[in-house]
Amino acid sequence: MKLFDVYPLFDIEPVRARGCFIYDKNGTEYLDFYGGHAVISIGHCHPHYVQKIAGQLQKIGFYSNSIQNRLQEELAEKLGKLSQLPDYQLFLCNSGAEANEDALKLASFKTGKTKVIAFRKGFHGRTSAAVNVTDNPAIQAPINKNFPVELHILNEIQTVQKSLEKGDTCAVIIEGIQGIGGIRVPKPSFLKALSSLCGKYEVPLILDEVQSGYGRSGKFFAFQYADIQPDIITMAKGMGNGFPIGGLLIHPKFESKFGMLGHTFGGNHLACAAGIAVLDILERENLIDKAAETGVYFRERLQQLPQVREVRGKGLMLGVAFDFPISPLRKALIFEEKVFTGSSSEPNVLRLLPPLNIGKKEVDFFMKKLQKVLANSFANHRSSESP
Length: 387
Prior knowledge:
The chain has 11 helices and 14 strands. By secondary structure, it is of the alpha/beta class. The radius of gyration is 21 Å and the shape is globular.
């Protein structure tokens, strides 16, 4: 049997990893500054993480949500404390797409409506409702287009207000920082205005923090730079450091009832063990503040490069806009300098999502490799604004 061929693959086979390094089957070392789409939050194979999952597996790995699972309660308590959102309610699922599906479903339950406001260049997942609010028609099958969606321009509040005034909106969904869209950051003033309008018109505001959450931005959630309280917050990726887990933080205004949401594997014992370990390490090693501090240093180093037009993002979620398409640059980095980086829907933007436990030493190591590739292969590409 062959695999269903939907992924373009690099000719690299990782077999082990530690910290911010990956090793392939030949023993070659790679610097990981992409974290498998921002999934690796606390570093590869952190000893506490490995011990927590292994220890849980020796006790019980899985049973359904028809029984009590105190690990879910422990995860909720620690998450509420570290995120500074103890009054929210936690629902656990398996992925970011599932989290956004559930968030949209909750919003529709509450409002009785179907139209969703989303934003250009946004990405919310590949499942049915999530992909319908994603700005990429190429990955939407006809069956996915089953409710009305308005796509608005990020940071432009006037058109959103006019739409909300119609009174037919089920939900507004927005990323804390757009990831695949090129690391586009909503302005705090825009998020404040959006939150205010959603409150005025009683429309649930969903903050998709699947990629930007769990400390990556230098705060637990990126929306916290705007000091707002969304109705629903979705999360995944860094939540389990590689173990499949996702979740929603749900405002107390939402009332639960039996059967309204559910997943067979959501919040299972192993997933909770992974999630608890991640929160333990984020807190013990002060990784959220470290991400903020390292991110400032990283941004300063990147801005010194003459080929760089702009550096976007917060903390260790950075997009580097060059004056040329970055596909050849990414290939040179991975095959010549052994560095993993990411792309985006903007062809000139390099996406950097390293583990949160890196420091200045690792940034300097990355910059040395990046500068080498730029000097060897891209010496003629210079920003028009450079001297």
